[in-house]
Amino acid sequence: MSGGFEMRIPSLMLCVCGALVLGGCQTPGARADDDNVGRLGEVVRPGPGTVYVELATEYFKGGQYALALTNAKKAVRLEPSNPTAHNILALIYQRLGDNALAEQHFQRAVALDPRDPYALNAYGTFLCAAKRYEEARQHFNRALDNPLNTEPWVPLTNAGACALEQGDKAGAESYLRRALQANHRFAPALLRMAKLSFAQHNYLSCRAYLQRYEEVAAHTPETLWLGIQTERELGDKDQLGRYEMTLRAKFPDSEQVRYLKEPKHP
Question: Which CATH architecture has domain 1-150?
Answer without folding.
Answer: Alpha Horseshoe (1.25)
